[in-house]
């Protein structure tokens, strides 16, 4: 089996955790800090962090427009938390001047579940990711949720109970996926393996 190379946006966010998860899932994982780093990767991960800071840093390092162009050309991408916001075509509650890379026909609400003190954990049904064991324990930190999905977007997970019951927290459109939560913080690498498989299929 061909080993795919997956980059992790490394200017801010949970970089080391994603590099470790991707390596454990069978990919060659590399940090991405410069436009040249995009040339030899088969997919990209946009980690959790602070979406406005990530945008500003990407612009400062001349990485934002090249990354946007690569994703628009079909580079598989996986965004977690802030990364989901960066991959959304539209944002509710955006900071003035905040731009996104796009790639997902969704509207995402920033900080939808509240502030840092409102962080929580929840059990999700992720049958598409693992049909044999769909239970996934997810960690949410200042998390967004998906307000709207386009016709070509598949919902991978929703909050099951509580005041946010029914809210969409994981989506896929082709080879682009995003989660509101942080799978890199759980020790459960099944979402990363799912993405590695998508990247492998796209590269074949």
Write the layout of secondary structure elements.
Elements: E1 5-9, H1 15-24, E2 28-32, E3 43-46, H2 51-60, H3 64-72, E4 77-80, H4 82-87, E5 88-92, E6 104-109, E7 120-125, E8 135-140, E9 145-149, E10 154-158, E11 168-173, E12 176-179, H5 190-203
Parallel strand pairs: 1-2, 1-3, 3-4, 4-12, 5-6
Antiparallel strand pairs: 6-9, 7-8, 10-11, 11-12
Task: Describe the fold and architecture.
There is one protein chain. The protein has 5 helices and 12 strands. With 204 residues, the chain is an alpha/beta fold. It has a single domain, classed as Class I glutamine amidotransferase (GATase) domain (Rossmann fold, 3-Layer(aba) Sandwich), CATH 3.40.50.880. Strands 2-1-3-4-12-11-10 form a 7-stranded mixed beta sheet. It starts with a strand and ends with a helix. The model has no long low-confidence stretch (mean pLDDT 92).
Number of helices: 5
First CA to last CA: what distance? 10 Å
Structural class: alpha/beta
Helix content: 10-25%
Q: Main sheet: which strands, in order across?
A: 2-1-3-4-12-11-10
CATH homologous superfamily name?
A: Class I glutamine amidotransferase (GATase) domain
Secondary-structure element order, as H and E? EHEEHHEHEEEEEEEEH
Tag the structure with descriptive keywords.
204 residues; alpha/beta; Rossmann fold; 7-stranded mixed sheet; globular
Short synopsis of the structure:
By secondary structure, this protein is of the alpha/beta class.
């Amino acid at each position: 089996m061909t080993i795919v190379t997956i980059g992790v946006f490394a200017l801010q966010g949970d970089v080391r955790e994603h590099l470790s998860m991707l390596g454990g899932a069978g990919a060659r994982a590399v940090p991405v800090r410069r436009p040249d780093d995009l040339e030899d990767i088969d997919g990209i991960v946009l980690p959790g962090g602070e979406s406005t800071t990530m945008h500003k840093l990407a612009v400062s390092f001349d990485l934002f427009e090249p990354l946007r162009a690569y994703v628009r050309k079909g580079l598989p991408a996986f965004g977690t938390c802030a990364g989901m916001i960066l991959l959304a075509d539209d944002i509710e509650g955006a900071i003035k001047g905040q731009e996104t890379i796009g790639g997902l026909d969704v509207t995402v609400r920033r900080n939808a579940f509240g502030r840092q003190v409102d962080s929580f954990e929840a059990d999700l049904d992720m049958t598409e990711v693992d049909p044999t064991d769909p239970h996934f324990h997810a960690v949410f930190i200042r998390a967004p949720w998906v307000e709207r999905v386009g016709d070509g977007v598949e919902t991978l997970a929703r909050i099951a109970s509580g005041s946010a019951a029914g809210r969409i927290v994981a989506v896929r459109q082709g080879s682009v996926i995003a989660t509101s939560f942080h799978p890199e913080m759980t020790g459960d690498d099944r979402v990363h393996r799912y993405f590695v498989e998508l990247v492998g299929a796209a590269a074949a």
